[in-house]
Amino acid sequence: MTEKEYSELADLLYPNTLDTSFYFNKYKPRDVQGEVTRIAPSPTGYLHIGQLYQALVHRMLADKTNGLFYCRLEDTDGKREVENAGKIAYDMLCRFGLKPDEGYCGDNNEVGDYGPYKQSERVEIYRAFAHDLVKRGKAFPCFCEVTSGKEEILKRREEELETNDDLEVKDPCRELSLEDVKQKLEQGKTFALRLKSDGDKEKSYKFIDAIKGEKEVRENTKDDVLIKSNGIPVYAFAHIVDDMLMKTTTVIRGQEWYQSLPVHLELSKAFGYKPFKYAHTPNICVLDENGNKRKISKRKDTFADVRFFLKTGYPITAVIEYLLNLLNSDFENWRKNNPELSYKEFPFAVKKIGVTNPLFDFVKLNDISKTIISKYTAEQVYESLINWAKEWSTNDVAKIEQNKDVLIKIFSIDRGTPRPRKDITYMSEVLELYNYVLPNFEPTFNFELGAVDKNDLIVFLNDYKDNYQQAVDNQAWFEDLKSMSIKHNFVDNKTYKQNPEAYSGNVSDTSKFIRLAITGKENSPELYSIMKILGVKKCKARLQNLIEYIQKI
User: How far apart are CA 515 and CA 183, in angstroms?
Assistant: First the structure.
């Protein structure tokens, strides 16, 4: 076609649109020193842990460079949209301390001068840029019955590249004349807009990815769909237009988009726009049943939904610091050397992100969580517990409030010391962990005596129960137990019997049965403090319960 015919074709396909210069004049360059980054969730489901992982990169990069982080809602897939999903995604970003500086902020609310920040409200903008591409001969209408959306394009591209990365896809409609197009439109046929690729499959060019480093990619040779037949743009088109106008400087996204990079770069070139900086993050994975890595799945992995961590009661900081461990391998050493500093002071850098897909490790997350909670005061533990229950376990609220004093007492044991205990991993386990200080607790026993003589143990427990009284301190309590152990010559390993003079009063063999009687558990905080909290009467009753259980063994 001639230049005049291209212009006529553009007016025919997209009549009554504004010139793109209007939007470039409307959205002025930002007065921002550093990087402008964005998160663009889709309201087709919950916020994925992988998106939180990427949002952390956006937030940290913007903060470290005195830049700006904004949120754009990619709500163009009406068929799959889930009610309130956009609002929930934004709320989760805020809850995890990653609140965007501007953009979409839930429901129909937004803040900033570069909106609208919902793609469904930017259709006229996309029409203007579609008109511009057609006018310059960079795009054409496709009247084929089947066109693909973002996910289909991505899946097909991955399948094609696995078998033949030289594949060249030229759509038959690219050679339609202006008259052909007019005729089809008069027949009422709908069209999708495709990129008129001028790439050469024999050529490639070097490209620097902020994470992967210098790479070589082949030119795009595929006439990819830009706008579907319903007028809604696919990711490639909308991403380029929106990020151009919103002045994004670095596009941070999952590495699954790396294969689509050639078409995105060609599209930027078609618009006459300098390509953005790109950073393709590795994907967080888990091991499948065969021991192979796979991406975290919305269908298979409950923790894919970031609300899992709130519902379980993990400290938000624990989740963020764990993700930082995955992103920058030197974070762990930095944290050891700076135990009191906020993670926000960590010298985060995109270039330090590894290229290998990391595995999600709950053992590591739990260790971080225990360390963080161990630094809480008893009152802070209680506040965390009651706030968690009010949101996620309302049936427990009354129980927690009614037992506030005793819970704070148990939380206080071994807290605020150079080596505080680390027994709480998350709030949802607290009531079960410390159920022995709650009213109406009835321990259930399930253990074997092993080499311990049943009758000897019963005699010991009866004597200890009958003579038990509250000691003045932990040392006095220990001496009482040691004295009773020696009196009954009761040590499982027979140390005392073999050498009474060398016996130093190791009461581990007797205290474990006292602990079972009082708490129903083999591990607990300091036993003296627990027994002091419960009082003599309750302790004697629980010792009697254990005696009766042992008698039935």
Answer: 88
Q: Report, as an integer, the average pLDDT of 423-452.
A: 91
**Residue 317 to residues 179, 245, 431, Cα–Cα distance (Å):** 62, 34, 22
Amino acid at 385: L
Closest CA to 32 of 73, 63, 59: 63
Is residue 512 in a domain?
A: yes
Domain assignment of residue 93, yes or no: no
Q: Is the dihedral of CA 181, 184, 190, 196 positive or negative?
A: negative
Torsion angle, alpha carbons of 17, 22, 26, 29, to 10: 120
The answer on 479 and 547 residing in a single domain is yes
Q: Is the residue at 197 inside a domain?
A: yes
Residue 111 · residue 104 · CB < 8 Å: no
Answer yes or no: do 405 and 528 share one domain: no
* 343 & 366 share domain: yes
Matching residue, tokens 């988009």: 257
The number of residues in the chain equals 553
**CA 1/CA 175 separation, integer angstroms:** 9
Question: Looking at the domain assignment, is residue 48 inside a domain?
Answer: no
- Residue 469: is its pLDDT beyond 60? yes
Out of 76-85, 207-216, 217-226, 379-388, which region has the weakest mean confidence (pLDDT)? 76-85
Cis peptide before 116 (omega within 30 of 0): yes
Please tell me the total count of domains within the chain: 4
Residues 139 and 272 in one domain: yes
Q: What's the CA gap between 275 and 205, in Å, rounded?
A: 13
Domain region containing 270 = 3-23+121-281
Q: What is the distance between the alpha carbons of residues 464 and 166, in angstroms, rounded to a whole number? A: 83
- Sequence-separated (6 or more) residues with CB below 8 Å from residue 538: none
pTM of the predicted structure, to 2 decimals: 0.89
What is the average pLDDT score of the chain? 91
Residues 412 and 469 in one domain: no
The pLDDT assigned to 78 comes to 75
Q: What is the CATH number of the domain that holds 540?
A: 1.10.10
- Mean pLDDT of the region 250-257: 93
Provide the token pair at 408: 């704070």
Please report where in the chains the tokens 């461990």 appear, as a residue: 325
pLDDT at 509 over 80: no
CA distance 288 to 292: 5
Integer Cα distance of 86 and 74 in angstroms: 9
Residue type, 242: D
Residue 275 backbone phi and psi in degrees, to 5: -60, 150
DSSP line for 231-300: SPBPHHHHHHHHHHHTT--EEEEEGGGGGGHHHHHHHHHHTT-PPPEEEEEPPPEEE-TTS-EEE--TTT
